[in-house]
Design goal:
MetI-like fold, single chain, mainly alpha
């Protein structure tokens, strides 16, 4: 077996193009998933049992079903239902965001509940409202504890974006599969794709470790 470096070089512009889209998809999904996850996480700890139960059902459904199934349902069902036609990139961001939000919500919930209740009681006794106490006292402390699990979720989301290749979103894995399909090769396209994913995850891990050390010193 001869390793074909020439086809990797030929497809390198497409792989880099796919890498940029992978980063964009992951970043967009992280932002949307974090915002939605915070909202759901706060909803899980409110006193209203009905709303709390609804948020629990959301988390259960999205954590209990495969991401690939969710991608198919959103791409072939939800997006065409509201937009008239589907779009792989839009469907991908929606699917990744909704799935990540379920996991991030539980990270936020656990982080908030790990803070001693006396912190909230002390803030309220000083005249702060519940939302002010949550914003200025509870969340800043909880965030430091949530950085490691949030970092792990972000890395998982980055790698899960490869599943979008099955709906023809032109991200990194899509071009790796295109290379393999054109030349009937296995090692070259998938090793090249794996190497780029490894670089991305190592870079993201380093940035998260830097953030964690900075928060620890503060």
């Amino acid at each position: 077996m001869i390793f074909r470096w020439d086809i990797i070089i030929e497809y390198l512009p497409y792989l880099l193009q796919g890498t940029m889209l992978t980063i964009g998809l992951s970043l967009g999904s992280i932002i949307l998933g974090s915002v939605l996850g915070l909202f759901i996480g706060l909803g899980r700890i409110i006193s209203n049992k009905i709303l709390s139960s609804l948020f629990y059902c959301y988390i259960t459904v999205f954590r209990g079903t495969p991401l690939l199934v969710q991608i198919f349902l959103i791409h072939f069902g939800v997006v065409p239902l509201f937009a008239g036609e589907t779009n792989a990139v839009v469907a991908g961001v929606i699917a990744l965001s909704l799935n990540a939000a379920a996991y991030i919500a539980e990270i936020f919930r656990a982080g908030i509940q790990s803070i001693d209740r006396g912190q909230m009681e002390g803030a309220r006794s000083l005249g702060l409202t519940h939302s002010q106490a949550m914003r200025y006292i509870i969340l800043p402390q909880a965030f430091k504890r949530m950085v490691p699990p949030l970092g792990n979720e972000f890395i998982v989301l980055l790698k899960d974006s490869s599943l979008l290749s099955v709906i023809a979103a032109p991200e990194l894995m899509y071009w790796g599969r295109a290379m393999g399909g054109q030349y009937f090769k296995v090692w070259e396209p998938y090793l090249a794709s794996a190497f780029i994913y490894l670089v991305l995850t190592i870079t993201l891990s380093s940035l998260l470790n830097l953030l964690e050390r900075r928060l620890r010193t503060e």
